[in-house]
Design a protein that fits this description.
344 residues, alpha/beta, 14 helices, 10 strands, 18% strand
Length: 344
């Protein structure tokens, strides 16, 4: 992985525009977000890069979200609205992918919003470094409160092969989520890759496959995406279905890495999945504990049997492996206590 710091390259990032002949499609799945939708769409319409196709996929909303989409369509000719029966986030994204005409493709969730230079800067990076995927950092928060202030961004690039070999490494925060990236649309059209229908945390099963189709990925640590966590959103609400889908997605992903010879990444993901299982085992609500608790422990033990043979495993994981052999039901309280102490 090569990190790029030169002033000339920073100036490239700050350039006000790139080739406006290139059409960029932005796909926005929409479902019951009337309170936040206008903020999202306005941030798309106000992009400094203007050659856009904005595809709003109303996924069977039962509030006024569909009407809001139609209103914006009448006010901006770049907007296309597609109404469909509720099929979930993946199906809505796939509808947008199939309808998109742009050379590049981006996804924005309908309760999030983006910096006015989001498309301009990511497209500029993709073209400058001949990368099929451009990635930025993001703010994460709720109640409309996000940090302010900018600093000079850093840029780095790597081959897709190197990114896969170092998956879940230093840049784990940026790698998996779908919405902080600009993709060459041919990554989807030539491979046939689509988001898995009926699953939450769909990007766990998908992003590494798209990276595998690319030759090069370019990153900036500038935060251009505003990831808004609200009560009731997919990422903020714990449930048996969501946890189960996350476990399933992790299993499919680490198996893909193992099958394709990325041993280091496979081992790291197994250890991280162990941590995921034991953390959620400790913090899940009592109301769903009986439904998912045993499954989390069962999955944890499967990871543990693999991880015990890995050379690189942390002290924390070794302690958990030791205590789990003594019995696991009491460990819920111990981990809860540990988490509370760590958060103070």
């Amino acid at each position: 992985m090569r990190i790029l710091y030169s002033e000339s390259e920073r100036m490239l990032m700050a350039r006000e525009s790139v080739d406006f002949q290139i059409l960029v499609s932005i796909v926005v799945p929409v479902y019951n977000v009337e309170e936040y939708l206008s903020r999202c769409i306005a941030s798309l319409c106000n992009q400094s890069y203007t050659n856009l196709e904005i595809i709003l996929v109303d996924d069977g909303s039962t509030d006024s979200s569909g009407d809001i989409c139609d209103w914006y369509k009448n006010s901006d000719q770049r907007i296309e609205v597609l109404h469909q029966s509720n099929g979930g986030l993946s199906e809505a994204r796939n509808t947008g992918i199939n309808a998109a005409r742009g050379e590049y493709l981006a996804f924005v969730d309908s309760d999030d919003f983006i910096d006015e230079k989001y498309i301009d800067m990511l497209l500029n990076l993709a073209l400058t470094y001949d990368a099929q995927i451009a990635v930025c950092d993001y703010y994460k928060g709720g109640k409309d409160k996000f940090p302010e202030g900018r600093r000079k961004p850093k840029v780095w690039q790597c081959t897709a092969e190197n990114m896969l070999r170092n998956w879940h490494g230093k840049y784990k925060r940026l790698e998996t989520i779908a919405c902080n990236k600009l993709y060459k649309r041919e990554l989807f059209t030539k491979s046939g890759i689509r988001y898995p229908k009926g699953y939450y945390h769909e990007d766990i099963q998908t992003t590494h496959l798209l990276v595998n189709e690319a030759n090069k990925v370019v990153f900036t640590d500038e935060k251009l995406y505003y990831y808004f966590q609200r009560n009731g959103s997919i990422t903020s609400t714990g449930s048996v279905k969501r946890l189960g889908d996350c476990i399933y997605g992790q299993k499919r992903r680490y198996q893909w890495f193992k099958n394709n010879g990325y041993q280091r990444a496979y081992e790291v993901m197994c250890v991280k999945s162990m941590e995921f299982c034991i953390y959620n085992y400790a913090v899940i609500n009592d109301s769903i504990y009986e439904q998912i608790g045993e499954r989390l422990i069962e999955q944890y033990m499967r990871y543990a049997k693999k991880a015990i043979h890995f050379k690189k495993i942390g002290v924390w994981e070794k302690l958990l492996l030791f205590f789990m052999k003594k019995g696991y039901r009491w460990i819920r309280k111990i981990v809860q206590t540990f988490i509370k102490c760590k958060s103070k």
